[in-house]
Amino acid sequence: MSITRKIPVPKGINVGVRNATQTTMLSVLGNPRESYTDKDQPVTNERLKAMLVTRSIGPLRVTGLGPALDSLDRIVAEIRAEHPEVHAGLGTAGMLCVRLVRGSTKSISNHAWGTAIDLTLNGQLDTWGDGTVQDGLARIAPIFNRHGWYWGAGFRTEDAMHFECGEDLVRSWHADRLLVGAEAGDPPEGTVLAIGDRGPEVRRLQATLARFQADLAVDGDFGPATRAALIAFQAKHGLQADGVAGPATLGALGLA
Protein backbone atom coordinates (compact mmCIF):
# COMPACT_ATOMS: atom_id res chain seq x y z
CA MET A 1 0.00 0.00 0.00
CA SER A 2 1.48 3.36 -1.06
CA ILE A 3 2.35 5.72 1.80
CA THR A 4 1.28 8.65 -0.43
CA ARG A 5 -2.23 7.24 -1.05
CA LYS A 6 -4.81 9.87 -0.11
CA ILE A 7 -7.37 9.05 2.59
CA PRO A 8 -9.93 11.11 4.56
CA VAL A 9 -8.69 12.87 7.69
CA PRO A 10 -8.88 10.20 10.43
CA LYS A 11 -11.17 10.70 13.39
CA GLY A 12 -9.79 11.05 16.90
CA ILE A 13 -6.63 12.94 16.03
CA ASN A 14 -4.73 15.22 18.45
CA VAL A 15 -6.48 13.75 21.48
CA GLY A 16 -4.98 15.35 24.58
CA VAL A 17 -2.73 17.65 22.52
CA ARG A 18 -3.27 21.41 22.19
CA ASN A 19 -1.56 23.55 19.60
CA ALA A 20 0.67 26.14 21.27
CA THR A 21 -0.92 29.58 21.60
CA GLN A 22 0.70 32.77 20.38
CA THR A 23 0.67 34.10 23.94
CA THR A 24 2.64 31.13 25.27
CA MET A 25 5.19 31.19 22.45
CA LEU A 26 5.74 34.94 22.76
CA SER A 27 5.86 34.81 26.57
CA VAL A 28 8.37 31.98 26.73
CA LEU A 29 10.54 32.56 23.65
CA GLY A 30 9.84 36.15 22.65
CA ASN A 31 9.26 37.49 19.16
CA PRO A 32 11.53 35.90 16.54
CA ARG A 33 11.65 39.28 14.76
CA GLU A 34 9.96 42.69 14.77
CA SER A 35 7.75 42.33 11.68
CA TYR A 36 6.44 39.57 9.44
CA THR A 37 5.18 38.89 5.94
CA ASP A 38 4.15 35.67 4.21
CA LYS A 39 7.80 35.20 3.18
CA ASP A 40 10.65 33.74 5.22
CA GLN A 41 12.87 36.36 6.88
CA PRO A 42 15.86 36.09 9.25
CA VAL A 43 15.50 35.63 13.02
CA THR A 44 16.58 38.85 14.79
CA ASN A 45 15.93 37.67 18.38
CA GLU A 46 19.47 36.89 19.57
CA ARG A 47 18.32 34.71 22.50
CA LEU A 48 16.23 32.57 20.18
CA LYS A 49 18.94 32.47 17.54
CA ALA A 50 21.37 31.00 20.08
CA MET A 51 19.01 28.05 20.65
CA LEU A 52 18.65 27.18 16.96
CA VAL A 53 20.49 24.06 15.84
CA THR A 54 21.09 22.38 12.47
CA ARG A 55 21.53 18.63 12.43
CA SER A 56 20.55 15.37 10.76
CA ILE A 57 17.76 13.33 12.32
CA GLY A 58 17.38 10.03 10.52
CA PRO A 59 16.78 10.92 6.87
CA LEU A 60 15.97 14.55 7.74
CA ARG A 61 18.35 17.53 7.71
CA VAL A 62 16.71 20.32 9.70
CA THR A 63 17.25 23.59 11.55
CA GLY A 64 15.08 24.17 14.61
CA LEU A 65 14.90 24.93 18.31
CA GLY A 66 17.19 22.58 20.26
CA PRO A 67 14.54 20.90 22.48
CA ALA A 68 12.24 20.49 19.46
CA LEU A 69 15.00 18.65 17.60
CA ASP A 70 15.63 16.42 20.62
CA SER A 71 11.94 15.50 20.64
CA LEU A 72 11.89 15.01 16.87
CA ASP A 73 14.88 12.66 17.16
CA ARG A 74 12.90 10.39 19.48
CA ILE A 75 9.87 10.55 17.20
CA VAL A 76 11.82 9.59 14.07
CA ALA A 77 13.41 6.66 15.92
CA GLU A 78 9.93 5.38 16.79
CA ILE A 79 8.74 5.88 13.21
CA ARG A 80 11.67 3.76 12.03
CA ALA A 81 10.80 1.00 14.51
CA GLU A 82 7.01 1.02 14.02
CA HIS A 83 6.63 2.10 10.37
CA PRO A 84 9.87 1.36 8.48
CA GLU A 85 8.18 1.83 5.12
CA VAL A 86 7.18 5.39 6.08
CA HIS A 87 10.64 6.09 7.52
CA ALA A 88 12.20 5.00 4.22
CA GLY A 89 10.20 7.65 2.35
CA LEU A 90 10.45 10.40 4.95
CA GLY A 91 11.69 13.84 3.91
CA THR A 92 11.10 17.46 4.85
CA ALA A 93 10.14 20.74 3.21
CA GLY A 94 11.63 22.66 6.14
CA MET A 95 11.39 23.48 9.82
CA LEU A 96 12.62 27.02 10.59
CA CYS A 97 10.72 29.55 8.46
CA VAL A 98 10.07 32.99 9.95
CA ARG A 99 6.76 34.08 8.46
CA LEU A 100 3.02 34.38 9.06
CA VAL A 101 0.66 31.42 8.88
CA ARG A 102 -0.37 30.88 5.28
CA GLY A 103 -3.36 33.11 4.44
CA SER A 104 -3.16 35.06 7.73
CA THR A 105 -2.26 38.67 8.44
CA LYS A 106 -2.00 38.16 12.23
CA SER A 107 -0.84 34.63 13.13
CA ILE A 108 2.89 33.99 13.46
CA SER A 109 3.69 30.52 12.18
CA ASN A 110 5.22 28.18 14.76
CA HIS A 111 7.88 27.58 12.10
CA ALA A 112 9.17 31.03 13.10
CA TRP A 113 10.41 29.59 16.41
CA GLY A 114 11.77 26.43 14.78
CA THR A 115 9.15 24.30 16.56
CA ALA A 116 7.23 22.98 13.54
CA ILE A 117 8.13 20.79 10.59
CA ASP A 118 6.57 20.11 7.17
CA LEU A 119 7.09 16.52 6.02
CA THR A 120 7.24 14.95 2.58
CA LEU A 121 6.71 11.30 1.72
CA ASN A 122 8.61 9.90 -1.25
CA GLY A 123 9.40 13.50 -2.19
CA GLN A 124 5.73 14.52 -2.30
CA LEU A 125 4.06 17.19 -0.18
CA ASP A 126 0.52 16.51 0.96
CA THR A 127 -1.90 18.89 -0.78
CA TRP A 128 -2.86 21.71 1.57
CA GLY A 129 -6.55 22.20 2.31
CA ASP A 130 -8.09 19.41 0.25
CA GLY A 131 -9.54 17.57 3.26
CA THR A 132 -7.55 14.39 2.62
CA VAL A 133 -4.18 13.24 3.93
CA GLN A 134 -1.38 10.96 2.83
CA ASP A 135 -1.78 7.52 4.37
CA GLY A 136 1.80 7.53 5.69
CA LEU A 137 1.21 10.79 7.58
CA ALA A 138 -1.92 9.33 9.18
CA ARG A 139 0.12 6.32 10.32
CA ILE A 140 2.80 8.37 12.05
CA ALA A 141 0.55 11.13 13.47
CA PRO A 142 -0.19 9.11 16.66
CA ILE A 143 3.56 8.95 17.36
CA PHE A 144 3.84 12.73 17.08
CA ASN A 145 0.79 13.09 19.34
CA ARG A 146 2.34 10.79 21.96
CA HIS A 147 5.30 13.14 22.11
CA GLY A 148 3.14 16.26 22.48
CA TRP A 149 3.16 17.44 18.86
CA TYR A 150 -0.02 18.74 17.22
CA TRP A 151 -0.90 17.46 13.73
CA GLY A 152 -1.97 20.18 11.27
CA ALA A 153 -4.73 17.95 9.85
CA GLY A 154 -6.76 19.22 12.81
CA PHE A 155 -6.73 22.85 11.69
CA ARG A 156 -9.79 24.42 10.02
CA THR A 157 -7.90 24.32 6.74
CA GLU A 158 -6.33 20.86 6.75
CA ASP A 159 -2.52 21.05 6.75
CA ALA A 160 -1.51 17.41 7.07
CA MET A 161 2.14 17.92 6.07
CA HIS A 162 2.54 20.09 9.20
CA PHE A 163 3.44 18.95 12.72
CA GLU A 164 4.18 21.42 15.53
CA CYS A 165 5.20 21.27 19.18
CA GLY A 166 2.09 21.57 21.32
CA GLU A 167 1.23 23.86 24.21
CA ASP A 168 2.05 21.41 26.98
CA LEU A 169 5.35 20.34 25.40
CA VAL A 170 6.52 23.96 25.16
CA ARG A 171 5.50 24.58 28.77
CA SER A 172 7.38 21.45 29.86
CA TRP A 173 10.61 22.81 28.31
CA HIS A 174 10.18 25.93 30.42
CA ALA A 175 9.43 23.94 33.57
CA ASP A 176 12.42 21.65 32.99
CA ARG A 177 14.72 24.63 32.29
CA LEU A 178 15.60 23.42 28.81
CA LEU A 179 15.32 26.95 27.41
CA VAL A 180 17.86 28.67 29.64
CA GLY A 181 19.34 31.57 27.71
CA ALA A 182 16.50 31.69 25.20
CA GLU A 183 13.59 32.38 27.52
CA ALA A 184 11.82 35.73 27.39
CA GLY A 185 9.76 35.03 30.52
CA ASP A 186 7.21 32.72 32.11
CA PRO A 187 4.20 31.26 30.28
CA PRO A 188 0.80 32.68 31.24
CA GLU A 189 -1.17 31.17 34.10
CA GLY A 190 -3.79 28.97 32.47
CA THR A 191 -5.01 29.17 28.88
CA VAL A 192 -4.86 32.56 27.16
CA LEU A 193 -6.34 32.96 23.68
CA ALA A 194 -5.71 36.10 21.66
CA ILE A 195 -5.82 37.43 18.12
CA GLY A 196 -3.69 35.26 15.86
CA ASP A 197 -4.51 31.99 17.63
CA ARG A 198 -6.20 29.14 15.81
CA GLY A 199 -7.36 25.61 16.41
CA PRO A 200 -9.99 23.67 18.39
CA GLU A 201 -9.80 25.85 21.52
CA VAL A 202 -10.52 28.94 19.44
CA ARG A 203 -13.40 27.10 17.79
CA ARG A 204 -14.91 26.32 21.22
CA LEU A 205 -14.50 29.95 22.24
CA GLN A 206 -16.24 31.13 19.07
CA ALA A 207 -19.06 28.61 19.45
CA THR A 208 -19.75 29.94 22.96
CA LEU A 209 -19.50 33.59 21.90
CA ALA A 210 -21.86 32.84 18.99
CA ARG A 211 -24.64 32.32 21.54
CA PHE A 212 -24.38 36.06 22.23
CA GLN A 213 -23.51 37.18 18.70
CA ALA A 214 -25.24 34.93 16.21
CA ASP A 215 -23.33 36.09 13.11
CA LEU A 216 -19.88 35.17 14.48
CA ALA A 217 -18.14 32.59 12.29
CA VAL A 218 -17.02 29.46 14.13
CA ASP A 219 -13.95 28.79 12.02
CA GLY A 220 -11.15 28.23 14.55
CA ASP A 221 -9.28 31.42 13.58
CA PHE A 222 -9.09 34.21 16.18
CA GLY A 223 -9.36 37.31 14.02
CA PRO A 224 -10.82 40.82 14.39
CA ALA A 225 -14.43 39.61 14.43
CA THR A 226 -13.74 37.19 17.29
CA ARG A 227 -11.88 39.89 19.18
CA ALA A 228 -14.78 42.34 18.75
CA ALA A 229 -17.31 39.73 19.95
CA LEU A 230 -15.09 38.96 22.94
CA ILE A 231 -14.74 42.64 23.87
CA ALA A 232 -18.51 43.05 23.72
CA PHE A 233 -18.99 40.04 26.01
CA GLN A 234 -16.33 41.27 28.45
CA ALA A 235 -17.80 44.75 28.63
CA LYS A 236 -21.30 43.40 29.22
CA HIS A 237 -20.13 41.12 32.05
CA GLY A 238 -17.87 43.56 33.88
CA LEU A 239 -14.61 41.98 32.75
CA GLN A 240 -11.51 43.74 31.47
CA ALA A 241 -12.51 44.48 27.86
CA ASP A 242 -9.15 43.76 26.23
CA GLY A 243 -10.18 41.18 23.62
CA VAL A 244 -7.98 38.52 25.24
CA ALA A 245 -9.58 35.34 26.56
CA GLY A 246 -7.71 34.66 29.80
CA PRO A 247 -8.80 32.53 32.77
CA ALA A 248 -11.36 35.07 34.07
CA THR A 249 -13.07 35.47 30.70
CA LEU A 250 -12.94 31.75 29.91
CA GLY A 251 -14.43 31.08 33.33
CA ALA A 252 -17.29 33.51 32.68
CA LEU A 253 -17.93 31.72 29.40
CA GLY A 254 -17.92 28.32 31.13
CA LEU A 255 -14.75 27.27 29.30
CA ALA A 256 -12.20 27.29 32.14
Characterization of the model:
The mean pLDDT is 94. This protein is of the alpha+beta class and 256 residues long. The N and C termini lie far apart (44 Å). The strands form three sheets. Strands 4, 5, 6, 8 and 9 form a five-stranded antiparallel β-sheet that branches. It is built from nine helices and nine strands. β2 and β3 form a beta hairpin.
Q: What is this structure's SSE topology?
A:
Elements: E1 6-8, H1 22-29, H2 46-50, E2 52-57, E3 60-65, H3 66-82, H4 84-88, E4 90-94, E5 116-121, E6 124-125, E7 132-134, H5 135-146, E8 149-151, E9 162-165, H6 167-175, H7 200-209, H8 224-236, H9 247-252
Antiparallel strand pairs: 1-7, 2-3, 4-5, 5-6, 5-9, 8-9
- The number of distinct helices, counting runs of at least 4 residues, comes to 9
> Spans with pLDDT under 50 lasting ≥5 residues?
none
Mean of residue pLDDT values? 94
Proportion in β-strands: 5-15%
Largest sheet: 5 strands, antiparallel
Q: Return the structural class.
A: alpha+beta
Indicate the overall shape.
globular
What is the terminal-to-terminal distance? 44 Å
Please trace the helix and strand order, writing H or E for each element: EHHEEHHEEEEHEEHHHH
Helix proportion range: 25-40%
Annotation, overall tally of beta strands: 9
Radius of gyration: 18 Å
